[in-house]
């Protein structure tokens, strides 16, 4: 019997997850399929009940449901508990267990480059769910201090508090000043959607240097303005597609119980760009 997997969220039509996972299933000859399922805000409970009825094997959760989905789980892994959000769910006979692969997905490209985070200072732009996963990742890697910048200070302060709860020194800085103080950070991470579809910069890049590591979690386009301009300053670049690929591979491994085919997934992903 074909096992069905899905991604739920809204909007969902831009998602690359179906292409990634279906390529993996085909490559390994697995009788599985993966679909995109639009679930508008306010319809999560009913949609999850429907997914259980059709015997969904597992699903990914994206915006705006990562936090709300936590209430509908029977069990969660450690990362879920820390971040307070889930992005990967396994259904075993109607019992739902949630995982969070965003933390490890975020860290994977950093580890692949053998970059040591310990004792470093980090600037995170944004204060949404992605920022929480990133802060949890940096806390795991024992950074010294995480500075949060965001359009609204109130939301940023929540992430500052979260970082402190994880034992990391943290503070808020005004978005207008963030670009000026960029050289004082080893990492500059964009955890907002600014740059999506190619327009805009989350902060000024004029002070980015060759010692900066600039990580943009936006993956469409591959080269955001932040990445293009930071490259001109000689910064080390980490691309959003690398995080997307790493967390998709981790979801695959949770569901299927075997390593994901890295090359097949990478070629599929880059082919989509």
Q: What layout of secondary structure does this protein have?
A:
Layout (H helix, E strand, L loop, with lengths): L2 E7 L7 H12 L3 E7 L5 H10 L4 E4 L13 E2 L1 H6 L4 E5 L2 E5 L2 H11 L8 E5 L3 H12 L4 E5 L3 H13 L3 E4 L2 H4 L8 E4 L22 E4 L8 H8 L3 E3 L1 H17 L5 H11 L1
Parallel strand pairs: 1-2, 1-3, 4-6, 7-8, 7-10, 8-9, 10-11, 11-12
Antiparallel strand pairs: 3-5, 5-6
Name its key features:
2 domains, six-stranded mixed sheet, alpha/beta
Reported for the largest beta sheet, the result is:
6 strands, mixed
Number of strands: 12
Shape: globular
- Rg (CA only): 18 Å
Fold-level CATH name of the largest domain: Rossmann fold
Quickly name the level 1 CATH class of the largest domain: Alpha Beta
Percent strand equals: 15-25%
Helix fraction by DSSP (H/I, runs of at least 4): 25-40%
Instruction: Report the span from N to C terminus.
Output: 33 Å
Q: What would CATH call the homologous superfamily of the largest domain?
A: NAD(P)-binding Rossmann-like Domain
**What is the SS-derived class?**
alpha/beta
Spatial order of strands in the largest sheet: 2-1-3-5-6-4
In CATH terms, what is the architecture of the largest domain? 3-Layer(aba) Sandwich
Question: What is the quaternary state of this protein?
Answer: single chain
Domain tally: 2
């Amino acid at each position: 019997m074909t096992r069905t997997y899905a991604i739920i969220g809204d909007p969902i039509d831009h998602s690359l997850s179906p292409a990634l996972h279906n390529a993996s299933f085909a490559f390994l000859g697995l009788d599985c399929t993966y679909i995109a399922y639009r679930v508008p805000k306010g319809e999560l409970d009913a949609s999850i009940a429907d997914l259980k009825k059709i015997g969904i094997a597992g699903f990914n959760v994206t915006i705006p449901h990562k936090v709300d989905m936590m209430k509908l789980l029977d069990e969660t892994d450690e990362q879920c508990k820390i971040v307070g959000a889930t992005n990967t769910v396994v259904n075993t006979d109607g019992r739902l267990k949630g995982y969070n692969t965003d933390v490890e997905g975020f860290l994977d490209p950093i580890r692949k480059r053998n970059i040591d985070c310990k004792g470093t200072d980090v600037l995170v732009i944004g204060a949404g769910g992605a920022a929480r996963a990133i802060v949890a990742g940096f806390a795991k890697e024992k950074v010294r201090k995480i500075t949060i910048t965001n359009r609204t200070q109130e939301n940023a302060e929540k992430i500052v508090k979260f970082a402190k709860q994880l034992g990391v020194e943290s503070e808020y800085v005004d978005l207008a000043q963030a670009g000026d103080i960029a050289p004082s950070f080893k990492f500059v991470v964009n955890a907002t959607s600014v740059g999506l579809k190619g327009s805009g910069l989350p902060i000024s890049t004029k002070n980015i240097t060759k010692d900066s590591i600039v990580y943009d979690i936006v993956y469409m386009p591959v080269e955001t303005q932040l990445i293009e301009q930071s490259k001109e300053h000689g910064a080390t670049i980490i691309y959003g597609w690398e995080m997307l690929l790493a967390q998709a591979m981790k979801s695959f491994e949770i569901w299927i119980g075997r390593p994901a085919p890295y090359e097949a997934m990478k070629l599929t992903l880059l082919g989509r760009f």
